[in-house]
Design brief:
This protein has about 190 residues and is α+β, with helices and mostly antiparallel strands. It has one domain (about 1-190): Nucleoside Triphosphate Pyrophosphohydrolase (Alpha-Beta Complex). Helices cover about 35% and strands about 30% of the residues. It is built from five helices and ten strands, in the order ααββββαββββββαα. It has helices at about 1-10, 15-30, 85-95, 160-165, 170-190, and strands at about 45-55, 60-65, 70, 75, 100, 110-115, 120, 125, 130-140, 150-160. Strands 1, 4, 5, 6 and 9 form a five-stranded mixed beta sheet that branches. The longest helix is centred in the last third of the chain and has 20 residues, at about 170-190.
Length: about 190
């Protein structure tokens, strides 16, 4: 965990949301010993991926059954403290793409996301927070993709701006996905 805390401390927040979320994440990492496990019911670590194609023109999204919306790919740490590995694993599991690689191994974005109470596999999951770390990944958009039926009902590549508008969740669309694309534009310009 200390290695991850060090990476998070080094991360330069992009905006006020990230600055505030970084402070809370660091505080919770110090006081919650099981923060990388779902047993930490109030809040736990997750990793997501903003997956771009090799031309930097399209983003990979999945239609998530729980949220009834197109969204990035990602999931729970489930004990893994290397969140980059979690993001890579989740992209492979949720899309079947194997060619996915990090554009850079550093944290791309951070956000704390609320998750409303719901049932998963017949078991109630209480309302909680995802302390999410996002990584910028790249994959071959010609590789065949498949759904993960217990989590999503579609997976596809979308032009970068269209990807933002595909989300049915206003907060995610306006505050998270737009931010990821703004950061992507800056990355491409460099």
């Amino acid at each position: 965990m200390e290695h991850f805390i060090h990476k998070l401390k080094k991360y330069q927040p992009y905006n006020e949301q990230e600055d505030t979320d970084k402070k809370l994440m660091l505080e919770l990492l110090q006081i919650q010993p099981d923060i990388f496990e779902r047993t930490c019911l109030a809040a736990h670590m997750t990793a997501s991926a903003w997956v771009v194609n090799k031309d930097w023109t399209r983003v990979l999204l999945a239609y998530h059954n729980l949220y009834q919306s197109w969204a990035w790919l990602g999931g729970h740490a489930d004990g893994e403290k290397d969140l980059l590995q979690v993001a890579l694993r989740e992209v492979q599991e949720e899309s079947s793409i194997q060619s996915v690689v990090p554009v850079k191994e550093e944290i791309y974005s951070i956000e704390i996301l609320p998750v409303c109470g719901h049932e998963k596999r017949g078991i109630y999951v209480p309302t909680h927070l995802h302390l999410n770390v996002t990584y910028l990944l790249q994959a071959d958009d010609r590789e065949q993709i498949h759904i993960k039926a217990d989590e999503n009902s579609a997976v596809g590549w979308f032009p970068i701006e269209e990807a933002v508008m595909k989300s049915a969740e206003p907060w995610m669309r306006e505050r998270i996905y737009r931010k990821l694309n703004e950061k992507l534009e800056r990355w491409i310009e460099q």
